[in-house]
Amino acid sequence: MTVQELKADFQTAYGKAAEAIYFSPGRVNLIGEHTDYNGGFVFPCALSFGTYLLLAHNDDKVMRFKSLNQPEIVTLELSQLTTPLSNSWVNYPLGCIAQFVKRGVKIDKGFDILIWGNVPNGAGLSSSAALEVVTAYAFNDQLGTNYDRTELAKIGQLSEHEFALVNCGIMDQFASAQGKKDHAIFLNCDTLQFELVPIKLNGIKVVISNTHSPHKLDSGAYNQRVAECKLAVEQINKVRPIKYLAELTEDEFKTIEHAITDPVAHKRARHVVGEVQRTTDAVKALKSGDIAAFGKLMNASHVSLRDDYEVTGPQLDAMAEEAWKIDGVIGSRMTGGGFGGCTVSLVKNEAIDTFIQQVGSNYEARTGIKPDFYIAEIGDGARRVE
Ligand code: GLA
User: Residue 334 C-alpha to ligand 1 middle, in angstroms?
Assistant: First the structure.
């Protein structure tokens, strides 16, 4: 779908021209999984695919929402902007608009909105964050609120908490808002300080493998992981005051892990503490040109997410295991929330065809599902297109 086609669709839906067009990307996380809501490090990059939002104001004092994937237009009065709808995709953009209202911004004019995205849904590549951040970016521009990109990411995250009822961390919205072409974002999720690290890899590409696993990202299981980490912090607080698991080094963890009496919370905490260390080590390795070390840390991340965090499942495990067998694969792991979705792999250029062919057929033989492969293009964050 081109921008010209989207403009024509807007014209068809609303009988007038769009006044502005915005875009915000999905993301892939290279390492640092389930660390964001634990105050740890993540290392995601924005992708070249994402979500477009076209809008024009109206004089009817209503918000109209239309997605090209949905038949109907949803119309809301301006007095209804802070109330979630039951079971509607509109909650993602609506939840962002609600944050403006809650911050005291007066919205006294209506907008007609059209949305289209090309992030595969349910693939763990943050189609929802792309939709949230494009909405936050568009309304920031239209309402003249001048929030910075970090604030827009927080607006997206709050929308997810309050309207989608997922207690997510900040990673996805942050990557969508702050992404930079050919860079990954080394983000401290406690302080929100970040560094853009160039990711032009010599002779290597970032390959995303979509398991098309029928297990959708399960918000219940996700929120349960968040709660288990909170329990681990509470139990540790009996022997040492901490706010986040990520404050502990692996050595410190060993001296106090006995305080976590709940065995599940203990495993979850062990993953988080190890993953934070792996993320720091991986960024160091990348900066010093040691891509092999980076790859080993990716593999170790997958194993920890499988055994201690228990968010992989048979399809993600099959995809990673088949990738590990291929010569020319530097590293491979699940990416995003888990329970289905995608893996991310670093693959040498000359091995990519073999990778797609062999991982594809072996994965299909093991799971009965035909996967998809994308060579990631690392793009810029949210922006106005026209
Ligand atoms: C989902 C959440 C993120 C993060 C990842 C796991 O994508 O939205 O905040 O927790 O899972 O790293």
Answer: 12
Task: Spell out the alpha helix ranges (H) of 238-332.
Answer: 250-256, 263-287, 291-307, 314-324
The verdict on whether 112 is a catalytic residue reads no
Q: What is the pLDDT of residue 119?
A: 93
Reduce the DSSP state of residue 175 to 3 states and report it: helix
Distances (CA, A) of 118 to 2, 61, 113: 11, 30, 17
Please give the C-alpha separations between residue 87 and each of 91, 163, 164, 165, in angstroms, as whole numbers.
8, 10, 9, 11
Of 278, 315, 276, 317, nearest to 300 (Cα)?
278
Cβ 31 under 6 angstroms from ligand 1: no
The pLDDT assigned to 70 comes to: 85
**Protein residue with its CA nearest to atom 2 in ligand 1:** 168
Give the Å distance between the CA of 281 and the centre of ligand 1.
20
CB-CB contact of 202 with 196 (8 Å): no
**Token pair in block for residue 46:** 């924005």
CB 179 within 8 A of CB 45: yes
List the beta bridge partners of residue 206.
Answer: 346
Q: In what order do the strands lie in the sheet with 183-188?
A: 41-42, 183-188, 194-198
Structure tokens, 381: 């964050």
Where are the strands (E) in 336-382, listed by range?
342-348, 372-375
- Put simply, whether the predicted model's pTM sits higher than 0.85 gets the answer yes
Q: CB atoms < 10 A from the CB of 146, how many?
A: 8
What CATH number was assigned to the domain covering residues 3-198+380-384?
3.30.230.10
Residue 352 pLDDT grade (very low, low, confident, very high; cuts 50, 70, 90): very high
User: What 3-state DSSP class applies to 72?
Assistant: coil
CB contact burial 178-192 (16+ within 10 A = b; e otherwise): bbbeebbbbbbbbee
Report how far residue 198's alpha carbon sits from residue 291's, in angstroms, rounded to the nearest whole number: 13
